[in-house]
Amino acid sequence: MTSSVLVLKVGGRLLQQSEALSALLQVCQRIQQQRPLLLVHGGGEQIEHWLQQFQFSSTKVDGQRVTPAAHIPVIAGALAGDLNSQLVAVAQQAGLNAVGLTLAAGASIRCQIDHSRGCVGIPEAADKHLLETLLAQGFTPIMASLAQAADGQRLNVNADLAAAAVARLVDGDLVLLTDVDGILDKQGRLIDTINSQQAQQLIADGTVVGGMRVKLDAALSAAQHSRRSIAVAGWQHASNLLRLANGEQSGTRIQF
Ligand SMILES: Nc1ncnc2c1ncn2[C@@H]1O[C@H](COP(=O)(O)OP(=O)(O)O)[C@@H](O)[C@H]1O
Ligand SMILES: CC(=O)N[C@@H](CCC(=O)OP(=O)(O)O)C(=O)O
After folding, report:
1. Residue 1 resides in a domain
2. Residues of the domain holding 181
3. 199 assigned to some structural domain
4. Which one, 68, 203, 214, 236, has least CB within 10 Å?
5. Which residue ranges does the record assign to the Aspartate/glutamate/uridylate kinase domain (predicted)?
6. pTM of the prediction?
7. Is the alpha carbon torsion for 42, 47, 49, 50 positive or negative?
8. Is the ipTM above a cut-off of 0.90?
9. CATH of the domain at 217
10. Which residues are known binding-site members for substrate?
11. Exposed e or buried b for every residue in 31-69, given b needs 16+ CB within 10 A?
12. Does residue 29 lie in a domain region?
C-alpha cells in the first residue's frame, strides 16, 4: 500500500457521461480507502457551450483557449459553479467526502499571466497547507481549473497543466484521464511509453495535436520534475484507474 497522493485529472467530456462518471467515482472511493486522492477537472466542451449561449465566439491556440476578460464570468460559472458542484455531488453519492475548490483556494496555485491568450494562467505550485490539511483529514479535494493572478484577476487555466501543478504541490502521482485509451500513433495504435525525445518527435511530426499536445507537455514536465512516470489513460473503463492506482500499466506512460 502506498500513501502518496493520487492526483487525478478528468476532462469535460467525462462529466457529460453520467454512468461512466459515477462508475469512476465509485472506483475513486475504493482508492481513497488506500491512499489520499485529489481530483482536478476541466470542462472545455461545457465552456464552449456556455460561451455560445452568451453569444461569445471562442478560439484556441495550440490547444489552449484565448480568453478575453469579458468571457471570465461565463467560464467561472461553468467551471467553478456548475461543473464543480456537479462533480462534488456525484463524488459524495459515491461515498467520498468531497470538497469543491478552485486552484486559488488557500493560495494553492499561483499563476503567471499568459498575455498572448488574455486571461489565461500558467500555473505553478505555491502553498500546500490547505490541501495537505484536507487530505490528512480524509477529505477529497475537487479542484476546478480556475485560478487568479497576483493582482486578483481571475484566470482560465488548462486543466492538464493545472493538475500537473497540483501534483507537484502535493508531491503526488499524476494520472491524466481522457476520452481515448491513451496517446495514439499515426495509425491510431496505442503507444505504451513515451520518453522526452519521442514526445518532441510526436509533436513535431503532427501526431499529437490540440488538447493532447497540452496533455503531453504537462505530463512530460511533471515526469521530469517528479522523476516518476505519468499516465495518460481512458476513463471509459473505470477498472483502468484501479490498475493505475495499483501501479500497473494502462494507457500511455510518459517517462522522464
Ligand atoms: N496522438 C493523439 N492520440 C490521441 N488523441 C489525440 C492525439 N492527438 C490529438 N488527440 C486528440 O486529443 C483529444 C484529447 O484531448 P482533449 O480534447 O483536450 O481531452 P480532455 O478533455 O480529456 O483533456 C482526443 O480526443 C483526440 O481527439
Ligand atoms: C486555457 C484553457 O484552455 N482552459 C481550458 C479549461 C478547461 C479544460 O482544460 O477542460 P478539458 O480538461 O475538458 O479540456 C478551456 O477553456 O477549455
Report:
1. no
2. 6-254
3. yes
4. 68
5. 5-232
6. 0.97
7. positive
8. yes
9. 3.40.1160.10
10. 43-44, 65, 156
11. bbeebbbbbbbbbbebbbebbeeeeeebebeebbbbbee
12. yes
